[in-house]
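Problem: given the chain below (300 residues), write out its structure.
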Amino acid sequence: MSPLRRRASGPVRVVTDSTASFPDAPDPLRDLVEVVPLTVVVDGVAAREGEDITPDEIAGALGSGARVTTSQPSRAAFEAAYERAADDGASGVVSVHLSGELSGTVHQAAAAAATARLPVRVVDSRSAAMALGFAAREAARAARDGAPGHAVARRAMQVATSGRAVFLVDSLDHLRRGGRLSAPAAALGTVFGVRPLLTLRDGRIELVERIRTRRAAIERMLEVAVASVERRTDPALAVHYVGVHEPAFELARELEERAGHAVLVSPVSAVLGAHTGPGTLAVVVTDLAETSARAARDKR
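Solution.
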């Protein structure tokens, strides 16, 4: 039986998970989001990403041949987050998470929501990295501005579904071992000399195309990203990497020149990096546009 849910007048609290891959730079909106960490296990030793282990340390462990696995947060971790929101007087929680096709994280959040003592709306973003991060930030903006829970959840999903993420990996081995590849992408295997360009489509990792060289693959990523920017009204862009960061900053500079918009750069979360492997580069393009009519309606 669910506990009696208390009435409170405070703003809605936004919760997400550590795969959102937020940059370290100061961000007032990011400070309004509570992040529940996933776990990385390196040679049998468990660590919470973002707290006990960094993306760079994961890249080093993978490069040295360590056995790396990951696990979702426990139901108790989400129960504690929702309890803190209730104690702080929040009127509700919007909990927005990594695609349920890639992790059971969102299902643990939903299980905890069922017994929370305040209303909790759980959103499967069908995305990852800053496609998720941008959705959580915009949800936090809506909550800060006084939007009710249903509007905050809708805003999170609107931003998440507007996103396009393309990424390049040096090897499909990590994704294949983790069972995160679609059948067509897995069938590519380790064809000699082929660089697979991948994307998230409806929450699943799909193959975009096969490209012969890394340089050509990066150029194709830029073309896809610029085309995505041109189709969006208020684009937000991010570049992610695993391991060496110089190529990511070079990619970001080129993207800024071609697209005419600022680009956030951050390492992909340790958990995501464990599944994509060292050398990963990713570009995320999201649309932050929201019509004034919809914004006004949601606040009523």
